[in-house]
Design a protein that fits this description.
Order of helices and strands: EEEHEH
Strand content: 5-15%
Low-confidence stretches: none
Radius of gyration: 13 Å
CATH architecture: 2-Layer Sandwich
Shape: globular
Number of domains: 1
Distance between the termini: 33 Å
Largest sheet: 2 strands, antiparallel
Length: about 90
């Protein structure tokens, strides 16, 4: 399941630079959001980066975007291979 940022967000910006998949972004109305297509729940790490560092706990699992571990690993492999293709 992807994560999303709830209304408790204080827009501190700590999370935006911690996401290895660049899933966290600033919306047009200057709120932070997470792109569920990019979020892999940090499946390759011992803990979720953005969730772990949010000072107010505003980053929560998104029940609207449920994924199995197999789906998350597949997304992670695809993201990593796309990044490798972009390298010179």
């Amino acid at each position: 399941m992807a994560y999303h940022i709830v209304a408790d967000c204080i827009t501190c910006g700590i999370c935006i630079n911690k996401c290895a998949n660049q899933a966290v972004y600033l919306t047009a109305d200057e709120c932070y959001a997470i792109d569920p297509c990019r979020c892999t729940e940090c499946i390759d790490l011992p803990k979720r980066r953005c969730h772990a560092i949010c000072p107010v706990g505003a980053i929560q699992p998104d029940p609207a975007h449920r994924e199995t571990a197999a789906q998350l690993w597949a997304k992670q492999r695809t993201r990593r291979s796309n990044v490798a293709l972009d390298q010179p």
